Amino acid sequence: MYVAVKGGETAIRNAHKLLADKRRGDRSVPSIRLDQIVEQLALGVDRVMAEGSLYDLELAALAIKQARGDMIEAIFLVRAYRTTLPRFGYTLPVETAAMAIERRISATFKDLPGGQLLGPTFDYTHRLLDPELAADAAVEAPEERVEETHEPAPRVTDILGHHGMIETDGELPEGTAPGDLTREPLAFPLERDLRLQALARGDEGFLLGLAYSTQRGYARSHPFVGEIRIGEVEVELEVAELDFPLTLGRIRLTECQMVNQFKGSAKQPPQFTRGYGLVFGQSERKAMSMSLCDRALRARELGEDVTAAAQDEEFVISHSDNVQSTGFVEHLKLPHYVDFQAELDLVRRMRAEHERRDVQETAE
Amino acid sequence: MTELATYNFAYLDEQTKRMIRRAILKAIAIPGYQVPFASREMPMPYGWGTGGVQVTAAVIGPDDRLKVIDQGADDTTNAVSIRAFFQKTANVRVTTSTTEATIIQTRHRIPETPLTAGQILVYQVPIPEPLRFLEPRETETRKMHALEEYGLMHVKLYEDIARHGHIATTYAYPVKVEGRYVMDPSPTPKFDNPKMHRSPALQLFGAGREKRIYAVPPYTEVVSLDFEDHPFEIQSFSEPCALCGARGTYLDEVILDDKGGSMFVCSDTDFCEDRQAHGHCGHLSANPAEAAE
Fold first, then answer.
1. CB neighbours of B70 closer than 8 A, spacing ≥ 6?
2. Domain stops at, among A35, A56, A82
3. CATH of the domain at B126
4. Is residue B243 part of a domain?
5. What secondary structure does DSSP assign to A222-266, as a single string?
6. Which of B6, B61, B88, B281 is the most exposed place for a label (fewest CB within 10 A)?
7. Residues 59 to 118 of A: which have CB under 8 A from any B CB?
């Protein structure tokens, strides 16, 4: 006798209780605090802020804790919260040339105004597991600059730009308001503003793979890292009653200017083109991947043949959002037995027909 | 209630609801046309009914009675979860009865009990574009709809017939709405397609991840695509429901053992239980006399 499974409600409640228990783990181990996550898992926090599209260290830390360290789940938590927040307005474009620089490197110039600064990077570390870290050994204080230099650090693309060697930022037509992909549905083909927004919140791994594919010949773009800079910038908002913009605070950003070869077209002389990456927090991998993808996606604008996945706007943008991807892939866990029954019936019918044909053929 | 204080009635803020209602009105005005809307991130994953939940949240009011089904059943986990979501955020009355409900949110089925005027059926839609698996590009499919260029779909159905002798689509079977737009009925079995035709209820379709809403207004023509010499047919089952004895309903096959034994029961649990309560029984009912009481 078959009894329809009742008690879905109880099952869900119990599953959530068990999840909470597993999340806490062994009660004799102290619970991890949000400030510990913010301080010691900072790059994870940065990723959640970047792909969650919400700059809030503490909420990102909470999401990581709640998600048991599952980054995409944490990003999802932050997104679902972000979407409920009211909009007060749009801030002015941030001025990355005025960034309080923590790291700045250029692969195209040995030295440049403002200098190169390695900053807190994994580059040139030897990837040897460090037992001292496990033992929680004391850490030396870092070296500090003796005096704060006030030498301006112009963006490297502006330096090259003075000679017409590299394309300029370009001007948007008067009165153009950048789109907002969280408020309007995307309609392909996109302009670069919406494309960059989508890339900025796109999945790091997905963009990394696509960026890598362009290096291996699928839409090769001869890239050079013009510049990567990491540091804090001020966020400003224009308020109607005031005749000066109001500073709301500072956020840490990673900016990447990728410089790419361009043979020129009928309309444009040969010059270097650019791909752009800008990400919340410290994430060079993401900013670099983003800039390679941005450049590849400009194929149509620059009159290049669209031959590879990384150049295909609908393909890249439709599949770069990990909250969407994970939702749809994982929804296959939901019951599909009505559809499956329909398919089962069809396959049975087709097999019966197949057998009948076989019998007929042997009889003939 | 303090923890809920930060969320609006039915979770979405009123601005968002207004945006969704506009999309719904447009969808009703152009039956079968997919209206893009600025789908929000919901507190459940994409692919788990976020489109349907947003549509329901935009049309639900405090006086509504909500029914949520998944695979025809009220007690499947995701149906339970969505129903609980609206109980919590909108504090509305819920029901499992098809006739009592004013709004029914569904995934993969249309209730067996015919719907009536004034009811709203909200479908959760994974892929709203009926041409998607023939043409992956949105820019192309949009053009095909605009030009009413549905030849590709007919070729696909024809190729099925040439290869298998019949059309090999069993669910998400394409329909033409009011003689104009080809529409995906969502992954309901084709068994349910005829129920959409001239239904007195309003049918709304929400696809959250794909950011589309479409609609079939009451009493609208919904015709399943076919050919004169290969007319559209729905699935039929050789045996009645083992619990309520109903014939002509959609059945789920339930595996009973590992020796090939199985039974067929109504996928619409409310319909089946209602019949049992009214004394109908099938050959595997626990106790026919008891069920008759």
1. A334, A335, B76, B77, B78, B79, B106, B107, B108
2. A82
3. 3.40.50.11310
4. no
5. -EEEEEEEEEEEEEEE--TT-SSPEEEEEEEEEEEEEEE-----S
6. B6
7. 76, 79-80, 82-84, 86
Asked whether residue A41 falls in the same domain as residue A157, the answer is: no
Handedness of CA B168, B170, B172, B173 (dihedral sign): positive
- Tell me which chain A residues have a C-beta less than 8 angstroms from the C-beta of B39: 185
Strand-pair partners of A104: A117, A229
The 10s digit of each residue's pLDDT in A95-123 is: 999 999 999 999 988 888 888 999 999 99
B182 lies in which domain range? 2-224
Q: Which of B7, B41, B78, B184 is most worth mutating to test chain A (most A CB atoms within 10 A of its CB)?
A: B41
Cβ of B108 within 8 Å of Cβ of A339? The answer is yes
A167-171, A207-211, B250-254: which is most confident? A207-211
The total number of structural domains that make up chain A: 2
Secondary structure of residue A145 in the 3-state scheme: coil
pLDDT of residue A148: 65
**In this complex, do A2 and B242 lie within 8 Å of one another by their Cβ atoms?**
yes
Confidence of residue B291 (pLDDT cuts 50, 70, 90): very low
Q: What are the φ and ψ backbone dihedral angles of B78, each rounded to 5 degrees?
A: -70, -35
Indicate whether B157 and B274 sit together in one domain.
no
Domain range holding A52? 9-82
Residues B41 and B170 in one domain: yes
How far B19 CA lies from chain A's nearest CA (Å)?
10
A160 plus A245 within the same structural domain: yes
Q: Are residues B148 and B272 in the same domain?
A: no
Query: Phi first, then psi: what are they for B58, rounded to 5°?
Result: -80, -25
The interface predicted TM-score of the complex, written ipTM, equals 0.84
How many separate domains does chain B show? 2
